[in-house]
Amino acid sequence: MTDPALPTVLVVACALVDIDGRVLIAQRPQGKALAGLWEFPGGKVEPGERPEAALIRELDEELGIQVTEACLAPFVFASHAYDSFHLLMPLYLCRRWSGVVTQREHAALAWVKPSKLADYPMPPADAPLVAWLRDLL
Ligand SMILES: Nc1nc2c([nH]c(=O)n2[C@@H]2O[C@H](COP(=O)(O)OP(=O)(O)OP(=O)(O)O)[C@@H](O)[C@H]2O)c(=O)[nH]1
Ligand SMILES: [Mg+2]
């Protein structure tokens, strides 16, 4: 049994999908938890913030792109027990944005075909999300 006292942390993440059906993943930088692993851009929802607003903010901060709420389609979610917290992470799909995707906070960015996502090491919470993308995108 996992510790019932662990906090549940709400993190919002996005699968940006380009015109060729490739998905953007980003490599976590040195100095952060899970450094070197590839993730979907996004981050923690701040107190009082709506999830979609948090994701719009994170996509601007991390990638320098502007997304409207109407272009964020709820897709699947991850629910995963890490040692120190329980992660609840909705993954949205987004095919429309403005601005140019720019590496701002990550070590690297990659546009990857869904069938190739499994070649990139990702946090343990992400494995089911990758399977859904491969099967449903
Ligand atoms: N963004 C993102 N976070 C993920 C993924 N998978 C996963 O386990 N996480 C976890 O979710 C948490 C949120 O990560 P984050 O570092 O992006 O949060 P943040 O952007 O708000 O950064 P900050 O806390 O340094 O300000 C981390 O513990 C991270 O390891 C994923 O695919 N994308
Ligand atoms: Mg982040």
UniProtKB/TrEMBL annotation:
CDD domains: NUDIX_MutT_NudA_like (cd03425). It is an enzyme of class 3 (hydrolase). Residues 7-135 form the Nudix hydrolase domain. The keyword Ribosomal protein does not apply. Keywords: DNA damage, DNA repair, DNA replication, Hydrolase, Magnesium, Metal-binding, Mutator protein. It comes from the Bacteria. One of its GO terms (molecular function) is 8-oxo-GDP phosphatase activity. Its EC number is 3.6.1.55. Its cofactor is Mg(2+). It catalyses: 8-oxo-GTP + H2O = 8-oxo-GMP + diphosphate + H(+); 8-oxo-dGTP + H2O = 8-oxo-dGMP + diphosphate + H(+). GO terms for biological process: DNA repair; DNA replication. Belongs to the Nudix hydrolase family. This is 8-oxo-dGTP diphosphatase. It comes from Brevundimonas subvibrioides.
